[in-house]
Amino acid sequence: MPDLVKFIQGNQVVVEAALYAGLDFYAGYPITPSTEITEHMATRLPQIGGKFLQMEDEISSICAIIGASLTGHKVLTATSGPGYSLMQEGLGYAIMAEIPCVIVNVQRGGPSTGLPTGPSQGDVSQARHGTHGDHAIIVMTASNHQDIFEITVEAFNLAETYRTPVILLFDEVVGHMREKIILPEKGKLPLVERLRTSVKKGVDYHPYLPREDGRLPMSDFGSEHRYNVTGLAHDMWGFPTSNPGVVHGLMHHLVDKINNRVYTIEKHKEYYLEDARTILISYGASARSALHVVESRRRRGERLGLLELQTLWPFPFGMIREKCENARYVVVVEMNMGQILEPVKMSLPPDKVFLINRVDGVFITPTDIRNMLRIIHGKGV
Amino acid sequence: MPVKDYIRERFFPHIWCSGCGHGIILNNMLRAVEELDMDKSDIVMVSGIGCSARISGYVDFHTLHTLHGRALAFATGVKMSQPKLKLMVPMGDGDALAIGGNHFIHAARRNIDMTAIVMNNRIYGMTGGQFSPLSGYGTLATTAPYSNIDHNFDVVALAQAAGASFVARTTTFHARQITDLIKQAIEHRGFSVIEILSQCPTYFSRKNNMGGQIEMMEWYKNNTTRIGSKAKQENPQLIERGIFVQRDMPEYCDEYDKVIEAAQK
Amino acid sequence: MAKLKLKEHIINQEWCKGCGICVHFCPKKVLALDDNDKVMVVLPDDCICCKMCELRCPDLAIEVITD
Ligand SMILES: Cc1ncc(C[n+]2csc(CCOP(=O)(O)OP(=O)(O)O)c2C)c(N)n1
Ligand code: SF4
Q1: A195: pLDDT confidence band, cut at 50, 70 and 90?
Q2: CA-nearest residue of chain A to B81?
Q3: Where do the domains of chain B lie, and which CATH numbers do they carry?
Q4: Residue A380 — pLDDT band, cuts 50, 70, 90?
Q5: Residue B199 CA to ligand 2 centre (angstroms)
């Protein structure tokens, strides 16, 4: 099938990208502004012989996809704010039991029911720390439909590579907006498939023993290896243990497999950084406005650049340091109270880091950014 | 012992207290699997969290020890994604009907093919003796030190109302009936529920002055009867045992196959 | 069904937790607990091979072997 040009909502792009990546199982519960993902899945999955489940809530949705991942399927669930909060215990389970799965949170205004249709990026810190216990997590985002497609495919690849849940943190603006997208031809984007064990029947299989390259081959439920999966601390066979040495090793494995690979996992986009005196750091829908400002100011000769983050966690401290070393001003543009501002401040001398934000349920516009930049640059209001 | 083919012997003796009814359920569940001559690799046992949930660690099937209350939700994902697998879902009474109550009624409503076993000891064993939704009015628990004012569910009536297509009840005293009911439940196509009254000598019976495991099992013997028996007519207080519901209803995975067919037309 | 004849009771001392369920419910009082609270066979000749001790054992610790 050749490339296909479409004009669709961001939420629908997620669905098409997931199918492209090999998804064939979805469970979800409707919530604004992610509902269209659930709806399109209901239509699309049976067309390809896949399975769609509308569960009784978001808790059961994440549990169901974990169950389906264990039988060897690529799985996803999508939700927004309140539903994402409900998923935290299941998310921790997927982290602990190392189950590949993708979870989409199309953010809305919070806390609580907040602003169901208001754009926000208020769940960035929750995405990092939401579930209890020490853990690492991969969280990705995108600002336009083409990128949503690629990042969604990438999320599936990372989930399989690292046997981990991956969070896609989109927002109301990109989720609901319609724009042109070229659906790539099959085979154009690389796909990572489930790594299955080559251990033969009757030979001891260790579901939680990493290979030399760090990957852990899986065995589908229903095939010849019968093993245990638990959310308790466990040994390499998956059986519960409280042996301090084993638990220590498990905790470090879970965190290191992600945090030690920031440079491999991390993705970002750069616009006019080489000589930039002011660098905007932004992501998701906010990065659209930021890019607009950068491009218009560049035409007037101002040395403005944009660093668009696509991987929010693990946070690319080193990359930020490198890219922003020579900038005089580093300005984080986001729709929250400074959730990415914080780690950026940890990466750079804090006195050159500024925040331009909106938290009132209104999309941050190029004008908002221009006005605030004048203040930051000391040019008055 | 032939059932030893179905267990992970290296983890025995198990963690349950002396006299705990959960072991009797394990014992006879294995006999059911054996008598049906099932292939171990065709069975997925999904459990939640609780003393009861530990059962999955001891059986040599595909085992998924999940979150408190969520076993049926995980099991739904396993079954839908791989309908040829046989799902067994043992749960504690708190697990199944307090934190997991919503999943319980919705799994029943869908009539998805799996065997849900409620190991009803009328208490939270694992956390040390708090009341459960099955403890019942007037019982004592660490969180009902002055007598419980919460009324209990009738698991059978609840499962039936929610749409389960096979509903049965027995007790740990009636060991052969456990095997028999589990066999029938596994062979039934649809959502089956078996409530098994199971003693917790450590918390429930001690708190409620009902003696130990032996007195509890005597109680099961003396306070239960076959469905519709003469004894029941004479003494309506008796708890009935047997199969309450067994009906042919469209099964969820089969129904979804029709959705796929319609979508591909 | 022909009457079963007892060969032996196999008792797994390691697994037996001495709960006494088998002892109490044996219709012929074939079993007893020893000084260490482990089950033992005291009246093997009286065993009618109903196997209820085996089926009611919470610890999978007793097995009735018949000829
Ligand atoms: C979300 C959550 N809440 C509470 C608990 C604590 N907890 C563990 S087991 C349990 C109750 C166990 O009782 P039951 O389900 O009846 O099973 P039993 O132990 O009696 O077999 C509770 C409350 C938990 N593990 N997870
Ligand atoms: S606390 Fe109760 S339910 Fe738990 S193992 Fe002991 S007797 Fe069984």
Answers
A1: very high
A2: A68
A3: 3-264 (3.40.50.970)
A4: confident
A5: 8
- Restricting to C residues 12-41, those with a Cβ less than 8 Å away from any Cβ of B are 14-15, 17-21, 24-25
Bridge partners of residue C39, in order along the sequence:
C33
Tell me which residue in B7, B21, B28 faces C55 most closely, judged by beta carbons: B28
ipTM attached to this prediction:
0.98
Tens digit of each residue's pLDDT (9 = 90 or more) over B197-238: 999 999 999 999 999 999 999 999 999 999 999 999 999 999
Q: Least CB-CB distance to C21: which of B3, B13, B213?
A: B213
Residues of C in contact with B23 (CB under 8 A): 57-60
Residue B143, class by beta-carbon neighbours within 10 Å (0-12 exposed, 13-18 middle, 19+ buried)?
Answer: middle
Name the β-bridge partners of A178. Answer: A9
Q: What is the pLDDT of residue C2?
A: 66
- Give chain A's domains with CATH numbers: 4-183 (3.40.50.970), 269-379 (3.40.50.920)
- What is the mean pLDDT of the segment spanning A256-263? 97
All domains of chain C in start order, with CATH:
6-66 (3.30.70.20)
Contact residues on chain C for B14, CB-CB shorter than 8 A: 59
Low-confidence ranges of chain B (pLDDT < 70): 1
pLDDT value at position A3? Answer: 86
pLDDT at C1: 54
CA distance B260 to chain A (A): 4
Q: Which residues contact B198 (CB under 8 A, 6 or more apart)?
A: B20, B21, B22, B24, B25, B52, B119, B120, B121, B171, B172
Neighboring chain C residues of B21 at a CB cutoff of 8 Å: 58
- In three-state form (DSSP H/G/I as H, E/B as E, the rest C), the secondary structure along chain A is CCCEEEEEEHHHHHHHHHHHHCEEEEEECCCCCCHHHHHHHHHHHHHCCCEEEECCCHHHHHHHHHHHHHCCCEEEEEECHHHHHHCHHHHHHHHHHCCCEEEEEEECECCCCCECCCCCCCCHHHHHHCCCCCCCCEEECCCCHHHHHHHHHHHHHHHHHHCCEEEEEEEHHHHHCEEEEEECCCCCCCCCCCCECCCCCCCCCCCCCCCCCCCCCECCCCCCCCCEEECCCECCCCCECCCHHHHHHHHHHHHHHHHCCHHHHCCEEEECCCCCCEEEEECHHHHHHHHHHHHHHHHCCCCEEEEEECEEECCCHHHHHHHHCCCCEEEEEECCCCCCHHHHHHHCCHHHEEEEECCCCCCCCHHHHHHHHHHHCCCCC
* Per-residue confidence (pLDDT) for residue A381, from 0 to 100: 61
Per-residue pLDDT band at A2 (split at 50, 70, 90): confident
pTM of structure: 0.98
pLDDT band at C5 (very low <50, low <70, confident <90, very high): very high
Mean pLDDT over each residue of chain A, to the nearest integer:
97
What does residue A284 show for φ and ψ, rounded to 5 degrees? 55, -150
Single out the residue of A177, A233, A225 nearest to residue A199, CA to CA.
Answer: A225
pLDDT single digits (tens) A108-128:
999 999 999 999 999 999 999
